[in-house]
Amino acid sequence: MKKIQFGTSNPGKLLETQKLFAPLGFEIEQVHISYPELQSSDLEEVASFGINWIMKEKKIEEAVIIEDAGLFVSALNNYPGVFSKHFFVTIGFDGILRLLKGKEDRSAYFESCVAYCEKGSEPLFFKGRVDGTIAIMPRGHHGFGYDPIFIPKGAEKTFAEMEIEEKNKHSHRAIALRQLAEFLSNK
Ligand code: ITT
């Protein structure tokens, strides 16, 4: 089984990635490497800085991925976006629901940028986006982060009401990871 290390502190991201790659014969191993997060409004810039820093500073066995993601809410001028983690740990998804009270436009999207790098090669980037709406009330107990308030387009459930396999049919992360999987299977 081929191994890819995943530099993440987020067990939810890890599980979603493992579920998607297991049938393809890849073992995804979590590694705890914290890397500096660039202050930029562009996820790819953040991921690019992170992966280049890791390849320079850390010992990678064969290949590594990192992922940066965020929730972009239209009525909040696309906030929290790249600040999604900070917003989540300080104000939480309740804060989004409060800010959207009385607003008609509840559209939002999640975006993901996956950076992948093999030892001795240049990093590659894969992006995914899922459009949807912010629910009126939080629903569901699966997943992490903003999952209880995000309903992807074409679904009625929030991400938190879905098992991982179902979330992976829709999610920004799965869209980006499937492109990486396709790249790896064509190598
Ligand atoms: P890393 O260690 O991999 O960086 P993280 O949780 O810090 O994990 P990000 O920096 O990408 O991840 O932060 C993005 C935040 O956006 C994350 O903490 C969640 O609050 C939110 N988020 C991203 N993807 C999500 C998803 O699929 N479902 C719910 N919330 C998500």
Summarize the structure.
By secondary structure, this protein is α/β, with parallel strands linked by helices. It has helices at residues 11-21, 43-57, 84-90, 92-99, 164-170, 172-185; strands at 2-7, 26-31, 63-73, 79-80, 107-118, 124-134, 150-152.
List the helices and strands and how they pair.
Elements: E1 2-7, H1 11-21, E2 26-31, H2 43-57, E3 63-73, E4 79-80, H3 84-90, H4 92-99, E5 107-118, E6 124-134, E7 150-152, H5 164-170, H6 172-185
Parallel strand pairs: 1-2, 1-3
Antiparallel strand pairs: 3-4, 3-5, 5-6, 6-7
The chain binds inosine 5'-triphosphate.
Residues 8-10, 13, 67-71, 84-85, 88, 110, 143-147, 159, 171, 173 line the site of inosine 5'-triphosphate.
Summarize the structure in words.
- Strands 1, 2, 3, 4, 5, 6 and 7 form a 7-stranded mixed beta sheet that branches.
- The chain is α/β, with parallel strands linked by helices and 187 residues long.
- The chain has helices at residues 11-21, 43-57, 84-90, 92-99, 164-170, 172-185, and strands at residues 2-7, 26-31, 63-73, 79-80, 107-118, 124-134, 150-152.
- The chain starts with a strand and ends with a helix.
- Helix 1 (11-21) packs across helix 6 (172-185).
- The mean pLDDT is 95.
- It is built from 6 helices and 7 strands, in the order βαβαββααβββαα.
- A hairpin with a 5-residue loop joins strand 3 and strand 4.
- It has one domain: Maf protein.
- The structure holds inosine 5'-triphosphate.
- The site of inosine 5'-triphosphate (ITT) has 21 residues, from strand 3 and helix 3.
